[in-house]
């Protein structure tokens, strides 16, 4: 049961604070919830374990789907994106030395996505929240979320610098703490179910100081495994290489990374791969996960805290923002309109969308990754992949259905 609204503000009393909504995590999901609540006059506090510059510079996704562009416009949060983002008009597949450009405009009816790095949007949201006097505590780690069975949940906090742990008392806790956060784990097993699918390969994520070698995302389907190239601004490029799950950095010296990228992205026509110093690498476990329901009493999960998809067609960041808008509007309705109907429907409503995204991403994973490269089965499955890709371009109906899923449907 939610307690009735009493219009209080965050108060500090000794080592305990009190607020209406406590938000764990200042990623895109947590910050969008915070800004929308703040604008509706609902008291909230955001706690973030990292410092501000880390959060504002963390390079991740960049494709903002058209419905999310509209979402940001609706809330007057799209100024940065519209001023410096670029329209993304295509994605290019490569296979057998040939290009297969999937151009959005003819099929998308003007609903084209934008390229605007995730960290820029997070920076815009943080600016908006702080300029309006929001309470955002960096370098503050949530250690535990407790008392979820009652009507006074608490977040235990470590503010670092040797300070004693403190507590934030809330009416509602928003778990926006990402894939490895603690809020999902705070829900008892008997009250939720985590559905998980683990792919039997990994992706090596490579960030390089190298000019983009293409003006659109390139996804190569190759018998040795998938390779993806994503432009990340004028001097930085992201690459992903499908690799065995057990591989570590030592298996991938820089020369091997560039050699493999050259092989998998190769074209039968002249094409130049820009190489440069490798800034970072990480091995991404390829997994999909959905926690259901997205609510346990006064705790609500949004974004990667609730569901994960592999970063193959840029869904994660977009679904996280759509979750955040829905939850924020439901909370506003609850606290200012006094009705809980939308909040009660939050989990079911979002899960329908989340599963649709899971299905699409699973389909793309099967299209682009080669299970067990080097095996007899891989040679067979690679030919099936080729047939699927050919069909995508040969059949307008198949192409349009793919594109509808790809560019978003919120
Ligand atoms: C390498 C990589 C590339 C990606 N590429 C794409 C892409 O191209 N397109 C796309 O759509 N998606 C992509 N994603 C996924 C996308 O980044 C996520 O879906 C998105 O960040 C989810 O946002 P979020 O706010 O839910 O979580 P996050 O962005 O993970 O934010 C969670 C925040 O919570 C904080 N936090 C965690 N634990 C605590 C704690 N105990 N106390 C306080 N704070 C805490 C974290 O520091 C973090 O700031 C990529 C992900 C990775 C890792």
From TrEMBL:
Entry keyword annotation includes Transmembrane: yes
Membrane-spanning parts: 21-42
Superkingdom of the source species: Bacteria
Domain FAD-binding span(s) in chain numbering: 18-360
Keywords attached to this entry: Membrane, Monooxygenase, Oxidoreductase, Transmembrane, Transmembrane helix
The keyword Lipoprotein is annotated on this UniProt entry: no
A molecular-function term among this protein's GO annotations: monooxygenase activity
NCBIfam families noted in UniProt: PRK08243.1
Protein known as: p-hydroxybenzoate 3-monooxygenase
